[in-house]
Amino acid sequence: MKTFYWSLVIMLLPSMAYTQNTEKENEFTMSVQIRPRAEYRNGALTPRNEGESAASFINNRARLSMDYKRSDLEIKMSAQHVGVWGQDPQIDKNGRFILNEAWAKLDFGQGFFAQLGRQTLSYDDERILGGLDWNVAGRYHDALKLGYANKNNEVHLILAFNQNDEKTAGGTYYDSSKGQPYKNMQTVWYHYKSDNIPFGASLLFMNLGLETGDKATEDSHTRYLQTMGTYLTYKDSGWDLNGAFYYQMGKNKFARKVSALMGSVQAAYAFDKTWGVVASFDYLSGDKGTGDKFKAFDPLYGTHHKFYGAMDYFYASTFANGYAPGLMDARIGGRFRASSKVDMELNYHYFTTAVKLPELKKSLGSEVDYQINWSIMKDVKLSAGYSFMLGTKTMDAVKTGNHKSWQDWGWVSLNINPKVLFTKW
Asked: What is the rounded distance in angstroms from the CA atom of residue 198 to the CA atom of residue 400?
């Protein structure tokens, strides 16, 4: 055995000497995330009716991520188990453990790269494409991303083609209820960053192929929906200003012609490291149910929880009774950093429909959201929040529920996310 060990050392000496005298090119990182969140739902996602009891549960994300890098290659694998405490039996032979990320990035030099596999698509402020990290499962896409970047410019081309299984016949019919919400996607994103002023601008064009064929006969018929727009930012002297505008056309998954738009503006100002304020306005066009074109804007795969109220009444959950009234959201809020480890924010939203519906007023109601974050230690953060909604009769019509019933929601989350291994060689 000793002879074996000495032989191994002698064989490794040349490579050890080479490593000591050259720059370490290879990097490997492993991180772990445990994120339980306890929720009290008394009108979250959908307003509750009179007499309905509140619901409570604890969901959990257990994620293991591994990342390998060298000068021309990066590979990331991330697996997770998500669910609710008590959901699985003590003895479970069919555990739910999936890959939420599995991609490789090839660096061709001079700013060119290709990234392919299961990956998060997060762009700009995440209104159209976002990682949805708030959700216990997050959001991912199976796609090929081709890109180029230099000091001031960055452009990505994203391509996806989805199928339910490895078919031998039967065409290309795709059942989106069992997989991704689209059949194919072609997206171009461009971003410009100025050298002289704190200004940035992005352009986005997305072409979505949506299956509208016959499921029973697998008669594939793909309709195409186009979304295009811009996102602008300016940050200077405590000011953080941004705005976005997007337009949709083509046909939706119901084969209806679409003509819809959305716009947003936001202004935030930090007085110092302790205090800050923010005001914003969002408009997403709606449809009255008349006319030959569908005019309700679909924000697609963005992180809607980030924008339209923490109780997720809008776009994170659907409208009811066939309504698609759109949304106008006026928000004002404040931020307070009590110390280097504790910060909190308070936001007020006033919601109305974007279109006037028959026999209904436009006002949907008001929502108040409060959140506090405490960095307990390195890689460990405790967060909690409380929200309530004061709805109207119009809210009852487009979302169901009873606005006379108290609607509120509270939560507490512990996010433990350490980097457990990092090495170079």
From this structure: 45
